[in-house]
Design a protein that fits this description.
The protein has about 600 residues and is α+β, with helices and mostly antiparallel strands. The protein has 11 helices and 20 strands. Strands 1, 2, 3, 15, 16 and 18 form a 6-stranded mixed sheet that branches.
């Protein structure tokens, strides 16, 4: 495994009740609202402890209801698979969420790249037409491992015909893969003249609806190629124990258009690990068809707990599940933010760091991209075209292809069935789990243009509001497979004993100074943590102390291969478990799991989601 990520555990330590102290700056944008402004809420309180090097080291009262924890100003190298998670601190992130997200359309971003030939969609002489909702639901997506032999052959036939289309055809397999490459590997830009301002459909509230649109037109094209408007894209059912392996349909290498040689062969017939990027690098692989022993059952249980964390415990609210707003108005806002920060004696912020993934993107989705992709070049060699590497738009080769690299992920047919299940997770969240998307018009009216119609391709403009209900797109998911979702009732347990007689952690030896660089194997304690440092690396999605983690699929990035942004996690249930009804301080343990540099520019913050 090429590197890993970082995770965090929330803990609590009982503390004398001290008078609430207002921060030095105005309380307008504080992540810990004052007692005065929030007194109408039920009194379940959290003390936010300042985390080193600030001039407002007080304790602020915060009602515990729909809380979001935020780690601000993170810069992480993408060669490994970096990640972090968060706890609580006293000051709001100076780089606040956008006042308004971008209303994205074809006029805001352009596909171009000054570095090399680019995979932009071919131009069309015809003007884009607006999307018209489907009148009936004709397509029912089914689990790939349960697909009938007849439908398996239909799928192979459709993919073979798509691959046979000329690459210049906008609905060829090559062109479909290029769509993901262009939108996800830095080819779309806010301003083509500014190399360091790429647009990406990841790391924000764009992720889920954009991929739903993309997969929809891909699915329709496959049906058109075989003359079957009921054809539905099967999904890789990795959230159920029976589907926790790469489906056999994709593994047969003989004359199979669904097979891809650029996969990590050693993992294809193994039980998947949905928390793969948090696992030890020497963790043994477990055969899927092997004995169902304690190790097998333990990993299945951890996978189900990961899904529970992603969909339920950590996915409460649109921001937590779908991600933060997308902002491009960085320059104007940074001037204002830095002026305000200067008055506080704070540091100057160099770039906009507001973007943040939701749990839908950063958990099972990302882990399985990396699980399927190659782990690197053959041992003893360097990555190049000769060793099977792919060229990113930055001119560098990567050997984590295909699924393990955003620029090449769409070249693997498994990618589309993987994302069909990611889409299903959004569908389940929106229907069975009662999740509600954003109401911002900037999100609802964001639009993209895709080609439709194999015989006579035409560009179609489709908005996010068009895709909130899959029935508008003419498809749904197999109801039989959703009667029982095994992860809904997952049971997670504390790693550290709670209650009377439980061990109390000592305060850190020294205050933390920001920016703070995190190194693999070095557990960082913020304030007085309740999870002892020696146990922090053991915290996972099957533990109540687990606040979350962050990981990305590698891509070509300008500016030294770093991703800058912030991490937002829903922590209400975590606080319930580690604190109960007590008034306590909330602390955090940061556990970096990558050999690449992770830099934390600001201390963690906590805010009330219901006030946003």
């Amino acid at each position: 495994m090429n590197g890993a990520m970082a995770s965090a555990a929330c803990g609590s330590s009982t503390s004398p009740l001290l008078p609430a102290v207002a921060p030095a700056a105005s309380a307008k944008s504080s992540a810990c609202p004052s007692k005065k402004t929030t007194a109408t809420f039920p009194r379940r309180t959290v003390w936010c402890r300042a985390a080193g090097g600030r001039d407002d080291d007080g304790l602020l009262w915060l009602p515990r209801r729909d809380m979001l924890s935020t780690l601000g100003g993170v810069a992480a190298g993408l060669v490994g698979y970096p990640g972090l998670a968060s706890g609580a601190a006293v000051e709001a992130n100076p780089v606040e969420s956008c006042r308004k997200g971008d209303k994205v359309n074809e006029n805001l971003v352009k596909c171009t790249d000054p570095n090399r030939e680019f995979p932009c969609p071919p131009p069309s002489p015809a003007k884009a037409v607006d999307f018209t909702p489907e009148s009936t639901v004709k397509r029912v997506r089914q689990p790939a491992h349960l697909l009938s032999p007849e439908n398996q052959e239909k799928y192979k036939e459709a993919i073979a015909k798509m691959k046979a289309l000329p690459a210049a055809h906008p609905l060829s397999f090559a062109a479909q893969a290029a769509i993901h490459e262009s939108y996800c590997d830095g080819h779309y830009r806010y301003d083509p003249a500014e190399k360091n301002r790429p647009f990406d459909v990841h790391f924000s509230w764009i992720f889920a609806p954009w991929h739903r649109m993309y997969i929809h037109f891909y699915e329709k094209a496959l049906g058109q190629l075989i003359g079957d408007d009921t054809f539905a894209l099967p999904y890789w059912n990795w959230d159920a124990p029976a589907g926790m392996v790469v489906p056999p349909l994709f593994r047969d290498p003989f004359g199979n258009p669904l097979y891809n040689k650029n996969r990590e062969q050693s993992r294809l017939d193994k039980l998947v690990d949905l928390d793969f990027l948090n696992a030890p690098t020497d963790a043994p692989l477990i055969p899927f068809d092997g004995p169902k022993d304690d190790k097998y059952e333990a990993l299945v249980n951890k996978n189900l707990c990961t899904m529970y964390q992603q969909q339920i415990r950590g996915g409460k609210g649109a921001r937590a599940f779908l991600g933060e707003k997308l902002c491009s108005d960085a320059d104007a806002r940074l001037k204002e933010i830095n002026a305000r920060s200067k008055k506080r004696g704070g540091q100057k912020v160099k770039r906009d760091k507001t973007k943040s993934q939701g749990s839908l993107e950063r958990m099972a989705h990302t882990a399985l991209h990396v699980w399927v992709g190659r782990s690197g070049p053959p041992e003893g060699t360097t990555c190049s075209a000769d060793t099977g590497g792919v060229l990113g738009h930055n001119g560098a080769y990567t050997c984590n292809n295909d699924m393990g690299f955003l620029g090449s992920a769409g070249r693997d047919p498994l990618f589309y069935s993987h994302h069909s299940n990611v889409d299903r997770m959004w569908h389940i969240w929106s229907t069975k789990l009662g999740g509600e998307g954003f109401k911002d018009p900037e999100w609802l009216d964001a639009s993209f243009v895709f080609y439709d119609g194999v015989e006579n391709p035409r560009p179609v403009r489709i908005k996010f509001r068009d895709v909130l209900d899959t029935r508008n797109l003419g498809y749904t998911y197999d109801a039989e497979s959703e009667k029982e979702l095994p992860w809904v009732a997952s049971k997670i347990n504390p790693l550290v004993p709670r209650g009377k007689g439980a061990p109390r952690a000592a305060a850190p030896a020294k205050a933390l100074a920001y920016p703070l660089t995190l190194a693999a194997g070095e557990v960082v304690e913020v304030a007085g943590v309740a999870v002892p440092a020696k146990q922090a690396s053991k915290v996972g999605p099957d533990h109540t102390e687990y606040a979350g983690s962050f990981a990305v699929v590698p891509s070509s990035k300008a500016g030294g291969g770093t991703l800058e942004g912030r991490i937002t996690l829903f922590v209400d249930d975590v606080l319930d478990d580690v604190m109960g009804d007590r008034d306590t301080t909330v602390d955090v343990v940061l556990v970096p799991r990558t050999d690449e540099e992770i830099k934390l520019h600001l201390p963690p913050t906590i805010e009330n989601q219901s006030q946003n």
